[in-house]
Amino acid sequence: MSNDIHTEVAIIGGGVQGAGIAQAAAAAGYDSCIFERATWAAGTSQRSSKLIHGGLRYLETAQFSLVFHSLRERAQLLRNAPELVRPVPFYIPIYKNTSRRPWQIRAGLTLYYLLSGGGPLGHFRKLKKEEWHNLDGLDTNGLQAVFQYWDGQTDDRLLTEAVVDSAAQLGAQTFTGWELLEAKKNEDGYSLTFNTAEGERRCHCKSLVNATGPWVNQTSQRIENAAMTEEIELVRGSHIVVDKRLGRGVYYMEAPSDRRAVFAMPWGEHTLVGTTEIIHRDGPDNIAPSNDEITYLQGTLSHFFPGEKPALIDAWAGLRVLPRSDDSANKRLRDTFLMCDDENSPKILSVYGGKLTAYRHTAERVLGLLSKRLGPRTPRADTRRTPLAPRQ
């Protein structure tokens, strides 16, 4: 057809991972297109905890590489996207019954500092006791210590849109309202058929990237000879917004019922509390917080800020893609893994998992594989230094 699209790299999925890959491909000099069936960040990329962080708690499971790269990406985002990502103080209260002792928190924060490469954002301190009364009504009964460190916060949807806009400025073609119907393998790569508001449209690409997040295996079923694995589980992370204002920063709380990490953080004039980790048995299109999850998050907040029962304003849930395992969800590896048909010349590559903070690093890994098939190009930009700005 005369209106068929021809490109080198086609990316399916308009979340932050797909957007980052489109940006990286365009910056590296490749012709690229990104297709989203709904709107940018319509799925998990607007249902996260809104944090740009290294993953302090991942140190306990020895995920040092993930933390190292996430901290590097945190620094770059703070530099490249100052209107979208801002540093915020985090507070870790330690009580008599807290499972981790002050020396363990100090050791973890010291390692966090070292992995960050130092700098002002790597600094942490132990608050003086006379400062405790300024912590937004935090319960001081049984409180033994409070540590303060730094990480970042963002609006995940706005950040994703900014990355899409950057990809477009670098030459990528961007399409919303395009749903993949099928992808047929051919000698040159893949021929894709989409359903759009104007009817069926086609795209021909040399390399195809499936970056559809929780829908990754469903999408793979529409792709001929797709590289996929069924050894994953979808883990639901729910959040609530309540009518309470936090003036000091983000609180890193240990839920009394199961000792999981739960964050309470400023979100506009209100407070965002998250997250849960529940195996999600339904499909990715059917997702909402359960009443038990809402009660769990409300109870954790009330435990640390007693005497308050702030009204529930909103609640949502997102899905993580984690390797299938007998371990509890909070102990599993959180790094992104890539599946492709041929590591030496991939026509199809699927992205499993992905952290908001590390989207650009994931995109670099994807481009490292795709370039083996596509060959080198003259780069247009370096995404490590490419500014990101919110839409006007």
In words, what does this structure look like?
The chain folds into two domains: 5-45 and 157-231 and 334-374, FAD/NAD(P)-binding domain; 86-152 and 232-327, D-Amino Acid Oxidase, Chain A, domain 2. Strands 3, 4, 5, 6, 11, 12, 13, 14, 15 and 16 form a ten-stranded mixed sheet that branches. Strands 1, 2, 7, 8, 9, 10, 17 and 18 form an eight-stranded mixed sheet that branches. The mean pLDDT is 93. The radius of gyration is 22 Å and the shape is elongated. The two termini are 36 Å apart. The chain has helices spanning 16-27, 64-80, 102-116, 156-169, 216-220, 291-304, 359-374, and strands spanning 5-12, 32-36, 51-52, 85-95, 125-126, 143-154, 173-176, 179-185, 190-196, 199-210, 232-242, 250-254, 261-267, 270-274, 278-279, 312-323, 337-340, 348-352. It has seven helices and 18 strands. The chain is of the alpha+beta class and 392 residues long.
